[in-house]
Amino acid sequence: MSIELDGLAVGYDGTPVLEDVTLGVEPGEVLAVLGPNGVGKSTLLRTILGLQSPIRGSVALDGDSLSDLSRDEIARRVGYVPQQESTTVPSTVFDAVLMGRKPYLDWRPTEEDKRRVAAVLDSLDITELAMRNLHELSGGQRQKVMLGRALAQDPSSLVLDEPTSDLDIRHELDVLELVRRTSREGNAVVYAMHDINLAARYADRFLLVADGEVVALGDGSVLTPEHVERVFDVPVRLVEDETPILVPERGRD
């Protein structure tokens, strides 16, 4: 399923924090939204999910306007992994992933719902954690559970807000490889990130944003030192590899 944004302006109380976003994300494609804190990345993702209304422009899922879809229909089409997930209520891993079946439930989970959860846990290699409490898990394990909950929705698109925040490098790679695998299975994926070099390795296209506007949109060729300095206000130099590696110049003296 594709995600289409047309002339989108997002923000709060009628005041845009990011404007004039027009793009499409096709099945099997990963789009990384890159920019510093406070530029509207999370607001953009929440607008794609229908959790807040756009100030201008439109969002469509596979050609259907978001405004014409019910909350449950959006949840069936788009899985969401938020930046920070509250785990104040005790829950097992199995029950947390089962929550992803909510858009399909009438009252109580069916055997098919439980089978789907078991299949998701197996695909993420966390079956052995099924009866563990979320509070007992590491950050990387918990992030896999949140990804599992999104996948249990059987979505055709995924939206993730800083999916590798607070993870060590091993778990960063684990999560991004799982997301990449999901895209290869036909999902359109959009995620917000800070780490340009990780994004360059795992995403297909990049949306760079700063000061309320789109700085660049395209493949890895848009990850230039000029664009990165414009977005993050830090001089960098480009090191050639299979994917671009951008090295900050600050601190070299």
Automatic annotation (TrEMBL):
Identify the PROSITE patterns for this entry.
ABC_TRANSPORTER_1, ABC_TRANSPORTER_2
* Keywords from the named record: ATP-binding, Nucleotide-binding, Translocase, Transport
Domain ABC transporter, first and last residues per copy: 3-236
Per UniProt, what is one GO molecular function of this protein? ABC-type vitamin B12 transporter activity
EC number(s) per entry: 7.6.2.8
Identify one Pfam family in the record. Answer: ABC_tran
Specify whether Membrane is a keyword of the entry.
Answer: no
Which CDD domains does this one have? Answer: ABC_Iron-Siderophores_B12_Hemin
Signal peptide annotation: none
Which reaction does this enzyme catalyse, per its entry?
Answer: an R-cob(III)alamin(out) + ATP + H2O = an R-cob(III)alamin(in) + ADP + phosphate + H(+)
What the protein does comes down to: Required for corrinoid utilization. Probably part of the ABC transporter complex BtuCDF involved in cobalamin (vitamin B12) import. Probably responsible for energy coupling to the transport system.
Quaternary structure annotation from Swiss-Prot or TrEMBL? The complex is composed of two ATP-binding proteins (BtuD), two transmembrane proteins (BtuC) and a solute-binding protein (BtuF).
Which protein are we looking at?
Cobalamin import ATP-binding protein BtuD
What organism does the record attribute this protein to? Haladaptatus paucihalophilus DX253
Q: What is the lineage of its organism?
A: Archaea, Methanobacteriati, Methanobacteriota, Stenosarchaea group, Halobacteria
